Amino acid sequence: MASTKTETTSATTRLTAGSGRLFSEGTDVTYGDFRDDLIKNGYAVVKGAVPRERALGYADGIYEWLEGFGLGFKRDDPSTIHKDHLPDINEKGMCLGYAVSHESFTWGVRQEAKVIEAFEKVYGTQDLIVSFDSIGVGFPNRKDIQPNKPWPHQDQDPEKPGFRCLQGLVNLLPNGPKDGGLIVCKGAHQLSEQFHEEFKNEEEKIWSWTKEWYGFTEKGLKWLKDHECEWVKIEAEPGDLLLWDSRTPHYNVTSETSQPRFCVYTCFMPVADATKEQLQIKKQAFEQTKMTTHWPNAAMIVDLPVLRNGEPDPSQRSSPREPVKLTERGYKLTGIPYLEQMA
Ligand SMILES: [Fe+2]
């Protein structure tokens, strides 16, 4: 599909592997689709990757799931938007417990053909694995949890430059300019290597629990501004797939309207990028319905205690409401068939 190849070397091509992968031919390439935005801006929107009605159906599934905890939440009663009536959802809208990574709506979105297809185009292969990541449940006007402060970051180790991971989310509800959601720093992915070269001896580093994360300090944000990188809040309709390069600085904001924001995080990578050991860990995570963060190679497993008022949450569960249902393609995305071939 790449039509023009005029640049063969670039700082952004380092650590990329395999022909057909985005950035493998440099940045002066035209595809005529969303990949052009990814190269130029570091983010893109694939409109209608999930048909609108089906996306709204997944949102309904999330509402049903929230009501199903029996804690008092009712979708039509805003007074029930309270931590006493909801499962544990942090101020960033992330839900990290209850085996939500393996709920019907989460796997439903991951197995959507056009969502998978977008990642196939980016990586130039159909042999992909998918992350067992979380969902986003953002309600407006919450006074019962701490405010959501911006935490601009990249989800990639500064010492491993180049395009390595494409992150994504499927937006499930109308998401206008003030409805909260993803904010990205346009074009900063291409300056990432230069940035980290200049900031490698930075004194005030923001603590991170993993090397695959870098937080921007005020000085870092000023650098981005001085290099004319603009922060953009992405707007989306139900069913739109939002994609961003892990090097693109980003964070999310809370809705300022009455509109909640629901999304399912979807991140895929070539199975060839995962080691056998990682696929074994991933298999175990699947069988135990655990969460893996956005890294599809199961680089990290999320297995934190879920607390309610400081005590283990009695509503916590280690498996979804129903056993996971997979299509043949969905099963491949777990990596298990590839692992069996390696045996
Ligand atoms: Fe992130």
From TrEMBL:
<protein>
    <recommendedName>
        <fullName>Phytanoyl-CoA dioxygenase</fullName>
    </recommendedName>
</protein>
<dbReference type="InterPro" id="IPR008775">
    <property type="entry name" value="Phytyl_CoA_dOase-like"/>
</dbReference>
<dbReference type="Pfam" id="PF05721">
    <property type="entry name" value="PhyH"/>
</dbReference>
<feature type="region of interest" description="Disordered">
    <location>
        <begin position="307"/>
        <end position="326"/>
    </location>
</feature>
